[in-house]
Amino acid sequence: MKNAAKKSAPKKRRSNQVPGQFYGYSLQITRVVAHFLRARQGQSVSIEHLDDVATHTDEGVIAEQDKSGLAHNPVADRSPELWKSLANWVRSIRDGALKSDTRFLFYVAQGHHGDVIDCIHAVKNKADADAVVLSLRSKFWGNPPKYAAKANLPKGLAEHVNEVLSASSEVLALLFTNLSLENGSGAPNDDLTALPGMAAISQEKKDEVLTLLLGWAKKVIDKRIEGGRAAVITWDEFHRQFVSAAKKLDRAENVLAANPVEVTEAELQKELRDRTYVRQLEVVRCDDGEMVQAVNDYLRSVAHRTNWSEDGDVIESSFGEFEDSIDRAWKSQKAVVDIEQKSLAEEERGRLLYAKCQLLKVPLQGMDVPGFFVPGSFHTLANSLRVGWHPRYRETVAALVPDLPENEQEVTGVAPAADPVRKRRHSTAPPSAVAGGELVDKGGGE
Predict the structure, then answer these.
(1) Helical axes 288-311 vs 316-340, angle rounded to 10°
(2) By three-state DSSP, how is residue 427 classified?
(3) pTM of this structure
């Protein structure tokens, strides 16, 4: 046929860059989880807020630029990605968005290196930084004062290189002394399994727990962006989810979750003023800090007794068995102190017995309990004079509190429903799920 149909235009092939771009974006979610697995309570992590990813701490901010490194080396000496990141940081320092307490992290998912980034990573002080700046100007601009090679820089690279190397020595010293390179293994999600926070999870369940955490982090970040809010997640939010994942997938039979409990100043002062367990500490001359800690431990343990019972995590009879266990442990420790330390003054023996009991590890219904629970439970028994710290604790406490209120005679069990803090549940923190420590060590990338 003369009027043959025109051949349909060939379909355009999708750019090979598209999967790489998606990988780069998803990498940021992985890095959010990585930061939390090295973070401490009270910190938070943001995405696309101050930087690709940023950890916010009391000591300052850790600002991170993330590069996948799939197609090329993003930290090669003449990489526009490297110099653009450095230029962005220079601009943020100069504008005051990132201050002197900021640390800078260049994360590359692959094992890429370059002379420039390695030299910056090795900087320890301003003298080192100044020497690196002189070396870089010579390398990219040529010799002073003409800097003849400056004009030969490629256009896409020149604007970033020139902005960085034109910055003041103070700005570059701040950046270079606080900048580190961190390399991944090429499998960022797999790298998460070796981070401190995952030490609490069994090896065979690490991947399942991480899959849940990564999905949760993406969902939370998406929701916050959709709602027009900053994509910031707090440590408490993350660790509540961590404990939920651990209980569901790995340690349901071994761990009781800890819920931070808010204690108001009024509640604190009332406990210090009215409670027999506080008088028990006074008669052995514990200091104010120890008594404040005792109040917090006591109130948190009371709240958790109620929460665990109501949630069905612990049956009521198990609390009685637990109290019998710590009562026996107290008697054993008291006998040791009385025999071995009988030359000490009574107050000193009491403080020693108290310290020993604070360190005891006693399971509840076969499960590990948070660190405050055993000390807080001892205070419950001390409040009813079932246990005590002074060798003559009944006599000495009676001298301070001649007429004990009727509610002080209660002997534990699940906390009464009227307890002022029993319903104040907040985020969940896994026992020993996160090892404390800095997120970035200037001494070397991973």
Answers:
(1) 150
(2) coil
(3) 0.57
- What is the distance between the alpha carbons of residues 61 and 226, in angstroms, rounded to a whole number? 25
The secondary structure of residue 149, as a DSSP letter, is G
Evaluate whether 52 touches 65 at the Cβ level (below 8 Å): yes
Closest CA to 31 of 3, 77, 62: 62
Alpha-carbon Rg for the chain, nearest whole angstrom, is 30
Contact residues for 225 (Cβ-Cβ < 8 A; gap 6+): 231
pLDDT at 21: 65
| 223: number of Cβ within 10 Å | 11
Please name the residues in contact with 411: beta carbons below 8 A apart, sequence gap of 6 or more.
323, 381, 384, 386
Cα 326 from Cα 340, distance rounded (Å):
21
Tokens read off for 41 = 């309570």
Beta strands in 83-195 (DSSP E): 103-108, 179-183
Q: Please tell me the distance from the alpha carbon of residue 91 to that of residue 85, in angstroms, as a whole number.
A: 10
3-state SS, residue 399 = helix
Cβ-contact 81, 40 below 8 angstroms: no
Whose tokens are 């005679």? That residue is 409
H or E segment and range at residue 378: helix 373-383
Residues 292-309 pLDDT 10s: 999 999 999 999 999 888
* Structure tokens given for 217: 């982090």
CB count within 10 Å of CB 381 equals 20
pLDDT digits (tens, 9 = 90+) for 64-111: 999 998 889 999 999 999 999 999 999 999 999 999 999 999 999 999
Partnered with residue 46 across adjacent β-strands are 54, 232
Identify the CA nearest to 208 among candidates 237, 239, 234, 247.
247
Q: Dump pLDDT digits (tens) for 354-399.
A: 999 999 999 998 888 988 999 999 999 999 999 999 999 999 998 8
Q: How far apart are CA 139 and CA 332, in angstroms?
A: 72
> What number is the average pLDDT over the span 314-335?
93
Q: Strand 103-108 to strand 60-67: parallel, antiparallel, or no bridges (unpaired)?
A: parallel
Q: How many CA atoms does the CB half-sphere of 326 hold within 13 Å?
A: 29
Q: From the CB of residue 362, how many other CB atoms can be counted at a distance below 10 Å?
A: 17
| CA dist., res. 105 & res. 182, Å (int) | 7
